[in-house]
Amino acid sequence: MGHVGFGSYRVSIKSKVHRESLVRALEAGCTLIDTSSNYTNGESEELIGSVLSENPQYKPIIVTKAGYIQGHALHVLRELNEKGQALEDLVDLSEELKHSIHPEFLKSQLDQSLERLKRDSVDYFLLHNPEYYFQTEGSTQDEYYARLKKAFIYCEEEVKKGRIKAYGVSSNNFGLPLNDPQVTDLSRILSVLKEMNGKNFKMVQFPFNLIEIGALEKLGDYGDESLLELCMANGLTTVVNRPLNAFTQNKLVRLATYEEQTKNLDDKKAQELFDHAMSLVKAKWDEAVDENTTADDFYEVEMIKQFTDLWNNLPTPDAVDQVYYGHFFPFIARVWGGQGLSAEQAQPFYQLMETSYLYSRRNLSNKALEFKKQAMSVGLLPDDGDRPFSVMAVETYLDYGFDYILVGMRKPEYVDQMKALF
Fold this sequence. Notes:
2 domains; 47% helix; alpha/beta; 14% strand; 3-stranded antiparallel sheet; TIM Barrel; 422 residues; 14 helices; 13 strands
């Protein structure tokens, strides 16, 4: 029977709630923490290092990853390049995002990860989504595995030095059909390891959920085995990520519900809050209009028309962030002009944003409940409607035989839901 691991994507040392959640998970018996050098620009690793140094009685398995170049890592890359290092095999995606599994870059990331984690070694060091290479023009499968081999040789050296105990790959493309030109083919990875006599490749991480089930499908080129069975046959530890965020037809289905958070959402009060916020903006707008502009023109502003339609219909909290921080708040700042809004003046708009978050979670819950019903009707889930959807889904994955299911638990209540599965 597998276990739930603590997924630390989007956790930060700056958050007291995140710290409380991690400590609670460790107290409840969580045995694995997954992180990455790029999660919250290194602040995820800093939180883990801080919590474990303050609580040495807990000795969980630590998994970290490297490959993404964004935020602080962009400065690190420039420094390496100035020394003539990590120049080869760079995947240049944009000014703000690059990717590399070149040994010289991996070493710099491991150096920093160990420092942030306050450890001399990590249990597992994974290459993080190396398939970004396929976004470069002229990419080939042969070159992909040549780059992986170079990284594997480096990782074997780090095992000898004692800085990592084992290594592996985290790839979103493991579950693709083997004839897909961008697949990460585990059988080819195993061939590379055999060729180089690699002994310490021990972990494979990939997405799996009730919709994205590629890891269970028998793909032909693996013989009669699925990806999961091939991992088992070769003694590889399997780690599932994104267990509650499924994508179908490019749309997110969140396999969890938020009834507790949204039960007090009052549509009438929410509308009153929206109307009040809009009246504040309109009043400020009217101060600037001239005699040739009517008051009604405010409601014809494209930003206001779109926002009126969207504020309580956004599909996810991330969409709320995009609309408010990317559009609505900048619009308000322009309307106020000068020194901008005081904290008191801004409060109604932040209250409105919090209400939009609640609506987005209710929207996610409604979709999840609909999918839950469908999943139970076709036997994907047991017909037990009283327990949390997320718990039922994760229990089902563990029954399939995966070793670890990573669940993001940024709030203590999420830890409490999953603690029986640690």
